[in-house]
Amino acid sequence: MPILMKKLVLGSCVAALAALSACSTSSPDVIKREDAQRMSQIQDATVLSVRPVTVDGSQSGVGAVAGGVVGAVAGASVGGRREGQIVGVLGAVAGAVVGNAVERNTTREEAVEVIVQLRNGERRSVVQAKGNENLSPGEAVILVSTGGKTRVSRAPAITAPSAASASNN
């Protein structure tokens, strides 16, 4: 394999591994573009408990493939033709294992499980990445559901309408 081609393959694989760090998050502070300007369902609730959890990283195979290609290219450049083939195969296997581990670790995130009680007495559990708000048991919260996903946020303060705005209606 020509040196220029090896560099292009290696660069592509490194770019694929770097892209893994930009995978989606479950953070309550990050809203997906397709969820913007959509009406969401809101439910009032009270926090019963909050505990730290870890959301396991994904293993889509992209890391293993990229690592395998990088390992194969690196290994194939060792020694003569026969040695290069053997080391290339070993490099591909080792690279796939390392690439898979990199993908899993870069997509893992620290999160919280929030158990709430709705006004009707039902209980719900929501797991989401740690956000800017630290929720505590007994605190009033809202559950915001959009497109099958739910996030928990501190309930906004309720204010009475002012006398000026009430007279304008």
From TrEMBL:
It comes from the Bacteria. The keyword Lipoprotein applies. Keywords: Lipoprotein, Signal. Residues 1-21 form the signal peptide. Pfam families: Rick_17kDa_Anti (PF05433). Residues 63-103 form the Glycine zipper 2TM domain. One of its GO terms (cellular component) is outer membrane. The keyword Signal applies. This is Outer membrane lipoprotein SlyB.
